[in-house]
Protein: Glutamyl-tRNA(Gln) amidotransferase subunit A
Organism: Microlunatus panaciterrae
Amino acid sequence: MSAELTHLTASALAAQIATGELSSVQVTQAHLDRIAAVDDLVHAFLHIDRDRALDQAAAVDAKRAAGERLGPLAGVPLALKDVLTYTGAPTTCGSKILEGWMPPYNATVTQRLLDADIVILGKTNLDEFAMGSSTENSAYGPTRNPWDTDRIPGGSGGGSAAALAAFEAPLAIGTDTGGSIRQPGAVTGTVGVKPTYGGTSRYGLVALASSLDTPGPCARNVLDAALLHRVIAGHDPRDSTSIDAPVPDIVGAARAADVSGMKIGVVKELGGEGYAPGVEQRFTEAVALLESLGADIVEVSCPHFDYALAAYYLILPSECSSNLAKFDAMRFGLRVGDDGVLSAEQVMAATREAGFGAEVKRRIIIGTYALSSGYYDAYYGQAQKVRTLIARDFEAAFADVDVLVSPTTPSTAFRIGERVDDPLAMYKADLCTIPSNLAGNASASFPVGLAPEDGLPVGLQVMAPPLADDRLYRVGAALERALEAQWGGSLLDRIPELTTLQEVAR
Ligand code: GLN
C-alpha cells in the first residue's frame, strides 16, 4: 500500500486527500518510510523534518475534517532544496561554512508552500552554494542517481531530482542559476522548470548569482510541476527584481497539452558534435513527434550561444565572489581560529579556508580577478556585452517562433568521480541551459526517453520568452501525453527497483 502511495502523482494524492480517501498523515508517513528505506543509499536529503512534517499533515487533515476548503496541493509532501530558508531547520547550502545555521525567517517560496498547506519533508542536498553539475561538490557527500547509483543525479539540485526519482517525494523545489533545475531533471527522467527570471521570488534564497538565480518547480509529471509553479509564482515586494505582472495560465496550458499551430525552432548551435548519440536520437524523435502533433518545426540559428558558457563563467564568479563575501566568520555559521591571538582578518581567512570547498574557492578567485580594476572592462564588462547579444539572439528567434528546443544536456548522467578533477568538463553539462539564464527567459526540461547506449534518461529543453512560461507547459504536456501513450506509462515506471543499503549489505 505505501509503495503505491509513493508512486502516485501529486495531483492524484491531493485529490484523494481532499475527498478523505487518504489522509495527509498517511501519505506523509509513507514518504518518510520510503526515505528511511532508501536515503542512506541515495542521500537526497541533508535534513529530514519528520515530526514537523507529520504535524503539518495532521493540521491539513484537521482542516479537511472541519470542512475547510483545501488548496490544489494541500497535504502533499515536498522536498526543499537546502539553499532556501525555512525556520526551525538548518540551512547549510551544502557548505561547511553554514553547518547548523538556523535562518531567522522563511523564504517567500517556503512561506507560499506553507500557506498552500504543502507538507515539507526536509531539505535536499546540493553542490556547495549551488555551484556544480553533479552534487559532488556538497560538503556532506554526493547524492546518487536512482537510475544507477554509481552515477550523478545532476547538479546543483541533485538532491531534489533524486528525491523525485527515488519516490521519496512527489514534488520538490530547486533553484536554477545556470541549469540546476533542468540538468538534474534531464539526467533523472523528471520534469524541471526554470521560470522567467523575476517570476519567482529570490527572497530567502541564499544568493549565488543574483542576476541569474531563479527558484522553480520539480516534479515527476508536467501537471504537477504546473500546479507547484502556480503556488510559488507571482510578485513579491520583498525582492526588488520580482516582476509585478500576472502569472500566465500555466495550469491551463498543462491541461490543454496542445501544440497544434505552434511554431517550434530547433537551435542549430545546440546539437551535433559533442552530443551523445542517444541524446541526439531521442531529441530528434521527440521533435518529429511534436511535428506529428501539429507543430511547425523550423531550424533557428542563435550564433552567440557559442559564447554563453564563457560569458557565464565570468558573470557568475563575479557575482558570487561578491555575494559570498558575507561569510566572514562574524555574521553567520562557522568561526575558526578565534583564540584571542589571531586578528579579525586572520580569523576570517582561516574560516573561509576551512569552510569553503575547492569549487567555491576557485570561483571566488576568478570572480575577484574579473572584477578587479584594470580587468573589469576586459572580463566582466565584456561578458555583460556578450550577455546582451545572447538576449538579442533570443529576441530575434522569438519574433519568428513560439518556443525554441534543444537537448537539455549533451550527455546522460556521467559516473560519480568522472569529472570532479576536470572543471571544464563539468561546466559543459550546462552548455544548453545557460543561455536562458543569461537572457532571463523561461525554460524547462522534459523526459523524452532513455538513451539506447546506456539506458539512462534524456531530457528535451523548451525555451520560451520572458513571462510566456505557459508555452513550456503546453509543449511539455503534449509531449508527455504522446510519449506515455507510446510507453504505456511514465518513463519512471521503467526505473530499476532501488536496492536498499540493507540489501546491499546482505
Ligand atoms: N552547473 C552550473 C554551475 O555550476 C549551474 C549552477 C546552478 O544553476 N545553480 O554554475
Observations:
- The longest strand covers residues 442-450.
- The mean pLDDT is 96.
